[in-house]
Amino acid sequence: MALDELKSVIPEYAKDLKLNLGSVIGNSDLPQQQLWGTVLACAIASRSPKVLRELEPEAKANLSAEAYTAAKSAAAIMSMNNVFYRTRHLLSDPEYGTLRAGLRMNVIGNPGVEKTDFELWSLAVSAINGCGQCLDSHEQVLRKAGVDRETIQEAFKIAAVIQAVGVTVDTEATLAQ
């Protein structure tokens, strides 16, 4: 199992990450599609080649073709949106907020899976990319759709752990060179 391989390269000083990785994936209450879509989108957003290589095959095996594509789409579109909206929010000139974005985001309206799944994946990617405006937007859509806070928190727990694992294993790989 690729998850075991990934856990095996987490150093002893990051034992909590190893335990958390097993927990957020192995003990999640999320339905399989939400879980593995979140895992895949976060693995992509982590920018860690090792994390993506190890987690993608299992995600692909647990997702329909449509959900697999949608999770990758969530990571892609949020890569753009998180930079754009985070920057617009951080600039001190509020006039940027009145300008038309002019960016195509059609996949958000028609992701090919349940809207709540795509929103959950988008929220998790936004957590990794640190865009407060996108986090608020996706959280509000999810809450209006009846998704409870525990489910939303589960998604950003997965994001936090996968991001931390990526930083740690990539750091160790770099130091070993």
TrEMBL record:
<comment type="subunit">
    <text>Homotrimer.</text>
</comment>
<dbReference type="GO" id="GO:0045454">
    <property type="term" value="P:cell redox homeostasis"/>
</dbReference>
<dbReference type="GO" id="GO:0006979">
    <property type="term" value="P:response to oxidative stress"/>
</dbReference>
<dbReference type="InterPro" id="IPR029032">
    <property type="entry name" value="AhpD-like"/>
</dbReference>
<feature type="domain" description="Carboxymuconolactone decarboxylase-like">
    <location>
        <begin position="94"/>
        <end position="166"/>
    </location>
</feature>
<dbReference type="GO" id="GO:0051920">
    <property type="term" value="F:peroxiredoxin activity"/>
</dbReference>
<feature type="active site" description="Cysteine sulfenic acid (-SOH) intermediate">
    <location>
        <position position="134"/>
    </location>
</feature>
<dbReference type="GO" id="GO:0032843">
    <property type="term" value="F:hydroperoxide reductase activity"/>
</dbReference>
<dbReference type="InterPro" id="IPR004675">
    <property type="entry name" value="AhpD_core"/>
</dbReference>
<keyword id="KW-0676">Redox-active center</keyword>
<keyword id="KW-1015">Disulfide bond</keyword>
<dbReference type="InterPro" id="IPR003779">
    <property type="entry name" value="CMD-like"/>
</dbReference>
<feature type="active site" description="Proton donor">
    <location>
        <position position="131"/>
    </location>
</feature>
<dbReference type="InterPro" id="IPR004674">
    <property type="entry name" value="AhpD"/>
</dbReference>
<keyword id="KW-0575">Peroxidase</keyword>
<comment type="similarity">
    <text>Belongs to the AhpD family.</text>
</comment>
<keyword id="KW-0049">Antioxidant</keyword>
<comment type="function">
    <text>Antioxidant protein with alkyl hydroperoxidase activity. Required for the reduction of the AhpC active site cysteine residues and for the regeneration of the AhpC enzyme activity.</text>
</comment>
<dbReference type="GO" id="GO:0015036">
    <property type="term" value="F:disulfide oxidoreductase activity"/>
</dbReference>
<feature type="disulfide bond">
    <location>
        <begin position="131"/>
        <end position="134"/>
    </location>
</feature>
<protein>
    <recommendedName>
        <fullName>Alkyl hydroperoxide reductase AhpD</fullName>
        <ecNumber>1.11.1.28</ecNumber>
    </recommendedName>
</protein>
<keyword id="KW-0560">Oxidoreductase</keyword>
<dbReference type="Pfam" id="PF02627">
    <property type="entry name" value="CMD"/>
</dbReference>
